[in-house]
Amino acid sequence: RFEVVGKRENRITRLKLRAEFVEDPEEQQKMLTDLDQMEAIIRSTLAFAREDSDTEPSAMVDLAAMLKEIAENHPPAWVNVPGGDAVLRGRPVALRRCFNNLVENAIRYGHAADITVFDRPDALEVMIDDKGPGIPDDRIKDVFRPFVRLEESRNRESGGAGLGLAIARSVILSHGGSISLVNREEGGLRTRVRLPKADQHGG
């Protein structure tokens, strides 16, 4: 399946080159925008497929340090770690992909990503709060399904393929954790992730 996706990416690249020869500027821009959206969907699909079959080895992960680095690369995100430490055993690349998606999602739709990391006795808990409109309660479960997009217009502008939360959920579940979304009373959406620490002791 990776080979098929790769061939389609190459075809889109060829179509972009052809679009450069379209004389009508408006029509050319429409074609390039459509091709960009198709390319984004293919890349997201490939990332989802890779996560589904990932065999990345586990290692000790400093989750606090990872989240701080992600926040530095995604202003206006910021991180608060009350306990100071947040270490577990997991797949580093997959976890980075997961939290990158969650932070980007919070900023894109909620204009902020306020990240707090708690070192609980049996798990690490990460909360990502945004300042957006939230999600209708009856649609919260839907957003974890692949290719589900609650507002088509926003995704056309951002190039989203509706796979970010699905990939994040897949990563978290593969680590034995859980992820949930809840609308905050003060406004905005809260993403709560729990990752068990048992594996760092070999359990």
Compact summary:
This protein has helices spanning 2-19, 25-52, 63-72, 92-110, 152-158, 164-174; strands at residues 59-62, 78-80, 87-90, 114-119, 123-129, 178-183, 189-196. The chain has 203 residues and is an alpha+beta fold. Strand 4 (114-119) and strand 5 (123-129) form a beta hairpin.
Key traits:
single chain; about 200 residues; alpha+beta; 5-stranded mixed beta sheet; two-stranded antiparallel ribbon
Explain what you see:
The protein is an alpha+beta fold and 203 residues long. The chain is 46% helix and 19% strand. The protein is built from six helices and seven strands; from the N terminus they run ααβαββαββααββ. The chain has helices spanning 2-19, 25-52, 63-72, 92-110, 152-158, 164-174; strands at 59-62, 78-80, 87-90, 114-119, 123-129, 178-183, 189-196. β4 (114-119) and β5 (123-129) form a beta hairpin. The longest helix is centred in the first third of the chain and has 28 residues, at 25-52.
